[in-house]
Structures are given as C-alpha cells and as structure tokens.
Design a protein that fits this description.
Layout (H helix, E strand, L loop, with lengths): L2 H7 L12 H5 L12 H9 L6 E2 L3 E2 L6 E3 L4 E3 L5 E5 L3 H6 L7 H8 L8 E5 H7 L14 H14 L6 H12 L13
Antiparallel strand pairs: 1-2, 3-4, 5-6
Helix pairs in contact: 1-8
Length: 189
C-alpha cells in the first residue's frame, strides 16, 4: 500500500498510559534462538558495518566494530555508544493498543527481529532524545524524515496500533512531502 494511503488507513484513538511499567509490561531483551546473544546483541551484530569482536557468550568487545546511526548521521566504533531503539517506543505502543495484548505478545514486540525497521542501532544520544516520543514531538535528522515516517507507519500497521489525532496529522504532513512508495509488511502474530 502506498505511504499516503497507509497513513490514511491508521486508526485514530486516544492514547492511555494507565498501568504502563516498561519492564513489567514488555520484559527485557531475550535470547530467542538460544545462541547466547540477546536481541540487543543480535541487532548490533546484524547492523554492524564492520563486525565487532565477540567473546564468551556473545559479549561485544568495546572499541571494536563500526555502525552507522542513521537518525543523526553518525558513525560509531563502540557498541557501548549505541542503543537499540524500538521504532515505535514501548510506551507509545502501550498507549496505542499494546496495553490490551497478553504479555507474551508484548515481549515478542519488544524483541521482534523479523522486520529490519522495527529495532535499529542508533547513538545513545539520539535514542535518549527520542525517548518515548512520537513524530509530533521528535524526528531524526531532516534528511531521513521519509525513511523514519515509512518505518513508523509500517510498525504501527504491522502491529495493528492506533495513532492519536495529532500523530495522524503529523504523519499525513510528513507523508505529503515524501515519495508515495509502497510499504510492505506482514501483520505480526
């Protein structure tokens, strides 16, 4: 579905943070394939432009490896300087419908490696600036607004999450300035 049509299809609902507790609601990073690497490490290994040294049970050696943080156009040479960001932050997902999911689905959401746009390695600074904000309150560098908008909308559609009215207006405005490229996604289980 083209980007603008995808934005138009997002359901609008009021957001509600009642009962949200990050760890209690979504758990922590897991090692789904039991290879010793948790979700964070899997993302860092997958997105590395230059693979870091790995020791023991998936411990990334500081100062090795190289990554590109597309939110802020920065190259990073230590995994310690990176966070793994949920495109749609956990609190935003909770506010937008995840509060009604069983915990097992929320844990799956927090650790979903099946869509490369869902979890992204970015500088700690950019991730902390973003925090749990939606596109009304935070956007990455101007040069990647269209990329970010497409990934945000894809995540919302993939998980059947709603948007609030201000978010819908902002996404509509952003999409109007972007190529109307098709978004492809598989609905999450």
């Amino acid at each position: 579905m083209p980007l603008r049509e995808a934005v138009a299809s997002l359901p609008v609902a009021a957001e509600d943070r009642t009962g949200y507790d990050r760890e209690e609601s979504f758990g922590t990073w897991i090692d789904a394939d039991r290879d010793g690497c948790n979700t964070r490490a899997e993302v860092l290994l997958d997105e590395a432009l230059q693979a870091p040294e790995v020791t023991g049970r998936c411990s990334l050696v500081p100062g090795t490896g190289r990554w590109y943080s597309w939110y802020d156009d920065q190259y990073v040479t230590s995994a310690r300087d990176l966070d793994v960001d949920h495109m749609v932050p956990l609190a935003e997902a909770w506010d937008s419908g995840a509060s009604a999911w069983p915990k097992v689905r929320r844990v799956a959401y927090a650790n979903d490696l099946s869509d490369p746009g869902h979890l992204v390695a970015v500088t700690k600074r950019s991730n902390r600036q973003k925090s749990d904000r939606d596109p009304v309150e935070w956007m990455p560098d101007q040069a990647v607004h269209c990329h970010y908008t497409a990934d945000w909308v894809t995540a919302k559609l993939r998980y059947g999450l709603s948007v609030d009215l201000a978010e819908k207006r902002k996404l509509t405005e952003l999409a109007s300035g972007c190529p109307n490229a098709p978004l492809t996604y598989t609905p999450a289980p």
